[in-house]
Amino acid sequence: MATPMDHVLDYAHGRASVTAPRQARSTGQRLLEQPAIFDYQDFWQHTLPMLDVIRARYGHLRVDQLGGSYGWSVRNDERHGYNSLAVKTMAEYIDAFRAGAADLPYLRHISVNRCMPALRSYMRHPAAFEPNWVSARWLDRLGGPEIFVGRAGTKFGCLHQDHASVHIGFVQLQGEKEFVLFPPDDGPHLYRWRSRQFPCQQRNSWLTYDDLTDYGRYPLLRRTHPRRLVLRAGQGLLVPADWWHTTLNLTDCVSYSIRIVNGSNIGRVLKQHIKGIGRKIEMRRQGRD
Ligand SMILES: O=C(O)CCC(=O)C(=O)O
C-alpha cells in the first residue's frame, strides 16, 4: 500500500517551503486524492537490468519508429538530434545513453505492449497500482504501459493531465526524476488548450517546465498551487486522476509508467468519454477537427 509523501516542496511563487508530513490515510480511496510516493524495489524481476534486456531483445528496433500511447516516441523536431549522434537503433541509443552522450533526446513513451511486449513478464506492479482494470494488452489505448529513458537535464515537455481521468503509476528504475504537479482545480490558471484527440479535453497546457516560474509572462500562475517532488530509483509514485504534471530528469533516468482505472475513477473515465462525443461533434461543426 502506498504511503503519502512525507514531504512536499512547494515552490509556488518563488517561496520554497516544505509542507508538514501528511497523516497516513486509512483507505486506498482517500490515498488517491493526493500524489503518493513509496518504496518499491520489486518491479523488475529479471536478473539483468532492464536496459540490458531491452538491448539484447529489442536493440534492433529503430528509435524513430517506436510507437507510444500518446504519439511517437521520437518527435519530428528531435530527429536531427539522433542523426547528429548517429543514433538509429535502440541498441545505439542505449550505448549513447550509457556513454553519457550530450544532447541525447529524451526517449519518451516507448509502448511496452506495442514495441517490447516480452518485457511484461518481468514486471511486477506494486499493490498501490491495483486493481487496474485496463492493464490488459487489448486495453492499451487506456492503460498504455510505457518506458522512458532520458539523460540528466532532459525534460518531458508540456504540462498536461493524462487522458480521461485515469490515475498514473510511475516506477523509477534508475536515477532521480523531478515531478512538478498541480492539483486538478488549478486547471483554469494553467493556459490550457483543447486536444483534437478523442475525448477532446482541455488536458494540455502551453506551459513547459521552464515556464512554470515565469510569472511575468504567465501571471495566472500566481493563483496555482504547485508541488515538487523527486522520485528516486527504487520508488513508486501514484499520481491521482486529473493532476497536472511535467518532469525533469535530474540525473540519467530509466522509468516506467502505467495508467490505472478501477472503482475509484471508472465513473469519471466513462463520463469523460461520453462528454467527448459531444465535444467531437462540436469541434467538427466548428471546422476544428
Ligand atoms: O516520465 C516522465 O518524464 C513524464 C511522463 C508523463 O508525464 C506521462 O506519461 O504522462
Task: Looking at this protein, list some descriptive labels.
alpha+beta, binds 2-oxoglutaric acid, 7 helices, Jelly Rolls, 19% helix
Describe the structure.
There is one protein chain. With 289 residues, the chain is of the alpha+beta class. It has a single domain (35-285), classed as Jelly Rolls. 19% of the residues lie in helices and 25% in strands. It contains 7 helices and 16 strands. The protein has helices spanning 28-31, 50-58, 79-84, 90-98, 112-115, 140-143, 266-285, and strands at residues 9-10, 17-18, 36-39, 67-68, 71-72, 107-111, 146-150, 158-160, 167-174, 176-182, 192-193, 204-208, 227-232, 235-239, 244-249, 253-260. It has a 6-stranded antiparallel beta sheet with strand order 3-14-9-16-7-6. A 3-stranded antiparallel beta sheet has the order 8-12-11, with no helix packed on it. The N and C termini lie far apart (42 Å).
